[in-house]
Amino acid sequence: MDHEEKQADPQEVKAQARAGRAALAAMLAPVRARTRLAMGLQIVGAAATVVPYIAIAELAKVLLAPGPTDEGDVRRAVLIAVFGLSVRALFGGVALALTHFADVALQASLRRRIVERLGRAPLGWFTANSSATVRKAAQNDVHDLHYLVAHSAVETTAAVTVPVVGLGYLFWLDWRLALLALATLPLYAGAYAYMMKDFGPQMGRLNAGIAAINKAIVEFVTGIGVVKTFGRAGEAHAGYREAATRFGEHDSGWVRPMLKLEAFSSMAVSPPVVLLVNLAGGVWFVHAGWVSPVDVLTASMVALVIPSVLVTLGFGAQARREATAAAQRIAAVLETPVLPEAVRPRAPEGHEVVLEDVSFRYDGSTDVLKGVSLRLTPGTVTALVGPSGSGKSTLASLVTRFHDVTGGRITIGGADVREIASERLYRHIGFVLQDVQRLRTSVRDNIRLARPDASEEEVREAARAAQIDRRIEALPRGYDSVVGEEAVLSGGEAQRVSIARALLADAPVLVLDEATAFADPESEAAIQDAIARLVRGRTVLVIAHRLPTIVEADQIAVLSEGRIVARGRHPELLAEDGLYARMWASHERAVV
Ligand SMILES: Nc1ncnc2c1ncn2[C@@H]1O[C@H](COP(=O)(O)OP(=O)(O)OP(=O)(O)O)[C@@H](O)[C@H]1O
């Protein structure tokens, strides 16, 4: 196991942090004005928080003063306290409402921008991985901004304003009282600075330790079958034990002393200690004749408020860190490459598909397809065959414009696919792929995805032709069953739903990836039958895995390492005695 603890390059970490802050600032720009207004209101509201304390002190002075109590003074003190509380509630409430409205607007606009951007992303961009990223960005990451926008700005403002105004009042009252209110803070700050001294690298080591333990657990669990079979449980445990021991050593070496220090520093700002210091010091001040007992009481109340600022600032910093990371992920999704839409779109005339000298690379350096030219005549089936990795799926995905070619061009009915408006393109071209697109909605809606206005009879007709109608009718709620919940479909069944969808869409050009392995012969025959119906009369490009499709195809294109190395019908290619004949021979051997 690798125990090397990788330390990130500090320059890189700094650049990352800068990029994160910039992404966050750009994302929050639309709500900045409202956030600032809310902070302004909150300063007034928070300053008013101190007013009742002062009013109570004044009231105490009035009540404790020798001689008869002046009712007018009492009433005035009470009114001032009520006024302070009201201003605080009103301004604080409006400030929070403003930031919450800003947050709702920001979330909605970010989600809209994500959807709008993804609507223009090439379909080839949508993989399982990218779907997870998008889901995380649209749900969790956008939500992670909530605390920062709706709460943090306003709460931090309040947390800073209250002690500052309170201290200002204490300085006005007596500077010694103000300093007394701050007396325990240097202890806290000193302990905190000491804890933070080595924090970054130590946390890195701690996280590396946890990662090592997790890795050992995953290794053990995923290999448990092999481990048990060969009676090696002891050895497998050793990896975990070693990782756990290292973690434990580090834990006792750094974390435990830190925890003691933490407890000490928290105690320095805890209410009992603050109260004790202020009252004890206050008693001394009173004896010295510097202040009155009522002033000591007021100062103690203000001193109690001060530590709360530390907690709120801590939360604020944490929220900012999380929001920064979230903003970076959202920014990445918002920068998803998009397929350019033609300014003056063209309409295809006819259904012939022509690939002219097409090249393609995923990564900007290696050509996966090199100078591929191919003509797909309307009403014929072209079968793509070739070894694994030769570029068959890539070629099919270019015809459906899941990606744009990096060289050459592809035309449908004489128009470059890049010049056809995408909505029109997908009325013209249908696809049934292995990685079957199943939506979490009713089977009916899955079938009529391309034609939402299709009648019930048309949906059923398509399902019948795709040989899936009886299976759907046997589902708990028939066509209303939700795919993935009530309708758990096997690979073969899902592909037949896709075929029904393509039949209903009735696009004249069809790209088809035949399923490789759906075991039972009944399902196999049903799919074969459904496909035969589907391809009839269309321009078809099929990634062929089944013998009948290949043998009966009007044209077979043999791909090898991104080039078409042979083209023709089955008997012609066999006679050429090249790659195709070799593939055929090994296939026959495998079948026999
Ligand atoms: N999304 C992708 N990003 C980067 N490279 C890819 C991507 N998809 C495929 N490739 C690479 O392109 C080459 C052609 O892959 P492709 O899937 O088109 O071949 P294939 O003939 O369809 O293979 P198979 O029969 O195994 O499905 C391979 O080297 C593959 O690694």
Automatic annotation (TrEMBL):
It holds the Pfam family ABC_membrane. It is found in: Cell membrane. Gene3D superfamilies: ABC transporter type 1, transmembrane domain, P-loop containing nucleotide triphosphate hydrolases. Residues 37-306 form the ABC transmembrane type-1 domain. It is a multi-pass membrane protein. GO terms for molecular function: ATP binding. The chain crosses the membrane at residues 37-57, 77-102, 145-171, 177-195, 268-290, 296-315. The keyword Chloroplast does not apply. Keywords: ATP-binding, Membrane, Nucleotide-binding, Transmembrane, Transmembrane helix. The keyword Kinase does not apply. InterPro entries: AAA+_ATPase, ABC1_TM_dom, ABC1_TM_sf, ABC_transporter-like_ATP-bd, ABC_transporter-like_CS, P-loop_NTPase, Type_1_exporter. Residues 353-586 form the ABC transporter domain. This is ABC transporter ATP-binding protein/permease. It comes from Streptomyces cyaneofuscatus.
